[in-house]
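Annex B. Sample input.
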Amino acid sequence: MKLNDELFVLGKNSVGICKVIDSDYVLVSKKMPVSDNQLNDYINAIKDAKNNGINICEIVDYKLIDGTTSTFNNGVSYSKGVFIEDRAKGNSFTFNHFHLNEENKKEIIDGYMSSITNYIEEIEKRSEADISIYDKLIEDMLNLSQYNLEVDPKPTNFFFDSKKGYTIIDVIPMTKLGKNEFFNQYLKSIVFGYGIPHIYLDNNDVSMMPIDLYNRYKNSIKILIAKIETSLLKHNFKLDNSFDYIINEKDPNIVDYVDIYDYIDNRIEEHNKFKI
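Annex B, continued. Sample output.
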């Protein structure tokens, strides 16, 4: 696909970073993590990685935006551009925490419960994936170093699809991942995202979860961690405490579905008693 004038103007005037073009491509408007004179090498490295079997999204066309260049004292310049990229298949994790107020309490609680349900359903899908999916993810992360690239391990940079596995976006020039010192921690962030969504009343965590969702979540994380650790050992990594936070995460209050709104009302009432 080519970046025509219409798409360029759309990307140039876009408020957000990413717009979906169709089922195969997205339009991205941003500065890439390399200088302008390294941009073509960076794009070609990603293309080579994809052509050699790494699950990564390729930049298929681009144009820099006039008037967006920042040049530093060393003469290195970075410009914002409009890029057409492959659209990653599947889902990524975003950061979803909620803050209560009494005016739109029900809307916030319903949004929170929907977010928890979606998170657990995604964890279940990832736990049901064959261990070969995790072998491939680890191998792709390691093999990126052959192209002088590495992952930026934010959860939003990884999409999971039950058939395709994990697809990587927004890679960066290689800095330290080749040493593998943070590999297990990166993997935790990639697979589990930001963890269970939480809901807060002022600064107090009042998170809760229905018992059936809680049991599904606990069962899925055990299966998922076992698969990841098996794959790590297979690739000669030592296990550490990277996944302890997931296992030992403070449990939310367990409630029945019918008690959710009563539970929140009681917490608000208790909270208000101590307000000055």
